[in-house]
Amino acid sequence: MTIDGQTLIKVENIYKVFGEFHALAGISEEIHKGEVVVIVGPSGSGKSTFLRSLNLLEIPTRGKILFDGVDITDKKIDINKHRQKMGMVFQHFNLFPHKTILDNITLAPIKLLKKSKAEAEKEAMALLKRVGLEEKANSYPSQLSGGQKQRIAIVRSLAMQPEVMLFDEPTSALDPEMVGEVLELMKNLAREGMTMVVVTHEMGFAKEVATRVMFMDAGQIKEQGTPEEFFGNPKDERLKEFLSKII
Amino acid sequence: MLESLQRRFYLNFIKDDRWKYIWDGLGTTLKVTLFAVILGIVLGFLVAVVRSTYEKTGKLRILNFLCKIYLTVIRGTPVVVQLLIIYFVIFGSVKIDKVMVAVLAFGLNSGAYVAEIFRSGIMSIDNGQFEAGRSLGFNYAQTMFHIIMPQAFKNVLPALGNEFIVLLKETSVSGYIAMQDLTKGGDIIRSQTYDAFMPLLSVAAVYLVMVMIFTKLVSILERRLRNSDH
Fold first, then answer.
1. Is B1 part of a structural domain of the chain?
2. Which of A41, A133, A183, A247 is the most buried (most CB within 10 A)?
3. Which DSSP state fits B90?
4. Which residues contact A1 (CB under 8 A, 6 or more apart)?
């Protein structure tokens, strides 16, 4: 896995405070193009909040986030333009239940990228074919299994041709037998060089495809490294304890 | 017995073309209901958008405050009183069509209830839908329009249909400003023939049939919308 080193997202000392609670307590970090960064940590550690602040679904209380060199925490910029370049996949899929699979995928490209319906549908069908779900194009989300829904949700994000994909516990709501198909798709994306930030509990995925694994606790990044160092030789006491519990 | 019924029917409806009171009254009732519903839906929709935008984002604080006053006043006072105030106080010194006054009064009144129906529909949609829209790059209004509203509308359709039925029947108090709607039409016949039974039961039957037809239409629409996403 090659990393060309170019910084895609730069996080400068962000805090997120809910009342007295510090969900994020001063994080500075860089995500480079082509990286697959996996974030692990106990629940309540702030890992989802951190991920969701990268596209400003969670607005940091203070600190800056630069995406492609632009400060997206600046209130004067049009965040919607930048979000188009950051795909996001949610734990609960969040497909639009009132639209067919094809409409779910083409809605944003047609409305936001001003693509023609024909062009958007052609691209959508190509993506659907890639994930083996082209026969579901005219189905509704409620007719799909959890694993299929999540693959469609990934395709919906990919249709916007994002520069980075953010995954917020993408397999946590799935039945065990459906986890594999979603992880397989994510692995393929990683191999193709997609920049990815993934919050997950799937340690196998982290070991196999991550270029970097981060451990978060109490709103801070306590330790990070390549999967080999991270799992083979953890230093932080909390991380050791965490790993002993889950592996 | 049969003969007496025939005679009363003739007296109440045929003689002096008295059926016209019912027929014209029905026309007025439908006209007032239709335009009041349109006004109510437009008003209710706008108020609901302001209220839910405030609840979701904290914006539109002043507008939200005004909307709350509107909701409190309208829902806190009887519709008859509102009708009388609009006719005798607000337009007291102006010559104005009574139908207009009724449309205004019932529309303003209905808007308050429709607003709360729409708002509950918007708030009932899972926030994940909203986040999915925003994460794709849609702005707040686009997310509302393409993703939240269509789902919310489907959820509130039964309540909206119910509100329409309530409104249709509520217009029967228009007699308070001497507007000749369906109810008033029947009542005029009663005052002329001194027969209460026939005209008033006919009026009741006409309302009943209208409500039944409308209920059927709403259930057809509901089924259609349900088919579209199983």
1. no
2. A41
3. I
4. A34, A36, A190, A211
pLDDT for A1 beyond 50: no
Contact (CB<8Å) A94/B128: yes
Q: What's the CATH number where B159 sits? A: 1.10.3720.10
Average pLDDT over residues B32-54: 96
Tell whether B230 is within 8 A of chain A (Cβ).
yes
Pairs of CB atoms within 8 A across A/B: 66
Q: Distance of CA B57 to CAs A49, A88, B45, B53, B146, Å?
A: 18, 21, 18, 6, 18
Domain count across chain B? 1
pTM for this predicted structure:
0.86
Domain annotation covers residue B14: no
Judge residue B178's burial from the number of C-beta atoms within 10 Å of its C-beta, 0-12 exposed, 13-18 middle, 19 or more buried. exposed
Contacts of B226 (CB under 8 A, 6+ apart): B154
pLDDT for residue A2: 44
> A168 pairs with which residues across the strands?
A199
The answer to whether the CB atoms of B136 and A143 lie below 8 A apart is no
pLDDT band at B57 (very low <50, low <70, confident <90, very high): confident
Q: Give A162-219 pLDDT, tens digit per residue.
A: 999 999 999 999 999 999 999 999 999 999 999 999 999 999 999 999 999 999 999 9
B227–chain A Cβ distance below 8 A for any pair: no
Is B120 part of any domain?
yes
Q: What is the ipTM of this complex?
A: 0.92
